[in-house]
Design goal:
Radius of gyration: 25 Å
Helix content: 10-25%
Structural class: alpha+beta
Number of domains: 2
Number of strands: 25
CATH class of the largest domain: Alpha Beta
CATH architecture of the largest domain: Alpha-Beta Complex
CATH superfamily of the largest domain: 2-enoyl-CoA Hydratase, Chain A, domain 1
Length: 508
């Protein structure tokens, strides 16, 4: 699989979340030299024949083969999938930042479809659908037994048509029914605004084809207005990821040229690569050249990067690179932990454009850390609000069925399990016998639980009452601007929330 294009992002109105995808443009996949597993193939043909002969009603060969392929891929990990003609078209349209649907990134779940992240300024975001919600009915139909692609097709549709989602939400007493109106989703990847005291704010909601150039324009504008001299807040919360080249371009805006951003490791040689802050690794459209022309202040100003449990894939690449190079303070909560690369491989299909999306590599931060099923740990943990975290922001890659494990972590986990001593059997519960002779176990009386904190209110990222943003601003106000110089010494500052943190000097 040579001549890999550097990125295609799945950003349909609902699909596997946080997709970081490389697309092979070398044509249909070729059969390798591996020996065919004859016993397994014989078993497959026996099952195929039994279905054709004995199923309650006739089934077309095309349907059986499609379902077999889909099952083979979906059983590997949550991010590998078969893309039929419609899904493949949706993927290609999504990279341009415009598509039809509801505006949510989702993954498969045993109960239906799990929301990884709503996309800013879409019907889903306006309806307050949240990360961690599980969609179990669409227009009254249970979807637990159908494929993710089929559920996505149900959610997509013509603009201005209505749809009802039934969702399960952690902390809610029962199902929630939400009515939405489909729309053409035009994602504005980069938003920015000036902050008080010579600071700036940039939010990236997804990593798309034009994200790098849009970021460069935003930074130029903030610099001209004097809103970079005292620092920048880079908001990657609820950003499900996207194009690999866009993540490298964003990192290049803040790191010296030639800095390592991310490396990938896979089974084949093409999957073993290092990506650096060089135009050859991030420039896709002509406008991306603006990244290299950014003023020096973008390489030296203090930066706070905001992340949360729905920051995935490309977001984690940027956060991990800036953290490893000590270029930014990462603030918020543990990120999602999507540390794998998907390759889109076109398939032969009787003139139809279909493909498979296959996990082909893991990615690693500059220091060699794997983020897969772990995520980026913030330098300063700050909950969503002063009252605590949103209850449904605790869904991570590690919670997804068949998630990819890091071999070293799996080996360590197995070794720990093998060395653990068996737990002592718990003492049996006391029993009592009533006058009729019936014996029952006496359950211990449980202490009353502490009063549950009031659920944090919903707010839009970047608003005046955005708690995490306000903590980031407080940090930038208090950090000694000389900390960013090469020879500065570390110091300790205290935020308004009472959090104390050690501030390290930033490498130039």
């Amino acid at each position: 699989m040579k001549n890999m294009f550097r990125g295609l992002l799945l950003v349909s109105g609902g699909m596997v979340a946080g997709a970081l995808i490389s697309a092979s443009l070398a044509g249909p996949a070729k059969q390798g030299a591996s020996i065919l597993p004859l016993d397994e193939i014989r078993q497959f043909t026996d099952v195929y024949g039994a279905v054709k002969q004995f199923y309650v009603e006739p089934v077309e060969d095309k349907k059986l083969m499609k379902e077999a392929i889909s099952g083979m891929l979906s059983g590997l990990d949550p991010h590998s999938a078969f893309l039929d003609e419609e899904a493949y078209k949706d993927l290609q349209e999504g990279t341009a930042g415009e598509f039809g649907g509801l505006g949510i990134e989702v993954s498969a779940d045993p109960s239906g479809v799990k929301v990884i992240s709503p996309i800013d300024d879409t019907p889903a975001a306006r309806a307050h659908i949240r990360a961690g919600d599980i969609i179990f009915k669409i227009d009254g139909k249970l979807i637990k037994d159908q494929s993710l692609n089929d559920s996505v097709k149900m959610m997509r549709g013509k603009p201005d048509t209505n749809i009802e989602l039934s969702i399960l939400r952690k902390g809610s007493a029962g199902p929630i029914n939400i009515k939405l109106t489909r729309a053409i989703i035009k994602v504005q990847s980069v938003k920015s605004k000036p902050l008080p005291d010579g600071m700036g704010y940039v939010r990236i909601s997804q990593f798309q084809e034009r994200t790098s150039s849009d970021l460069a324009n935003a930074l130029e504008s903030l610099n001209k207005s004097g809103n970079l001299k005292n620092g920048l807040v880079l908001d990657l919360r609820n950003d499900p990821g996207g194009l690999l080249n866009a993540a490298i371009g964003v990192s290049a805006a803040f790191l010296p040229k030639g800095s390592l951003v991310v490396s990938t490791k896979g089974q084949i040689e093409d999957a073993k690569k290092e990506y650096i802050t060089s135009p050859k690794d991030y420039q896709v459209v002509r406008e991306d050249a603006a990244v290299e022309k950014l003023p020096e202040v973008t390489k030296t100003m203090p930066i706070v990067v905001l992340v949360n449990g729905a920051s995935a894939s490309a977001s984690e690449i940027v956060a991990g690179a800036l953290q490893d190079h000590k270029r930014a303070t990462i603030m918020g909560t543990q990120s999602f932990g999507k540390g794998s690369v998907q390759t889109v491989i076109p398939m032969r299909s009787e003139g139809k454009k279909t493909a498979i999306k296959l996990t082909t590599a893991r990615y690693f931060t500059p220091s060699g850390r794997s983020i897969q099923a772990k995520g980026i740990s913030p330098d300063v943990e700050v909950k969503d609000t002063a009252e605590g975290n949103f209850l449904d922001f605790d869904i991570r890659e590690a919670d997804l069925s068949n998630h990819l494990e890091v071999p070293e972590d799996k080996a360590a986990k197995d070794a720990k399990k093998a060395s653990e001593k068996p737990k002592k059997a718990e003492a049996p519960l006391p029993v009592k016998t009533d006058a009729s002779g019936i014996t029952e176990k006496v359950e211990p009386v449980k202490a009353k639980s502490e009063t549950v904190k009031k659920r944090p209110k919903f707010y839009r990222y970047g608003d005046a009452d955005d708690y995490q943003l306000n903590q980031a601003i407080d940090y930038l106000k208090k950090v000694d601007k000389e900390q960013v110089s090469k020879n500065a010494k570390a110091s300790v500052i205290e935020l308004e929330s009472g959090i104390k943190m050690k501030v390290e000097p930033v490498k130039k």
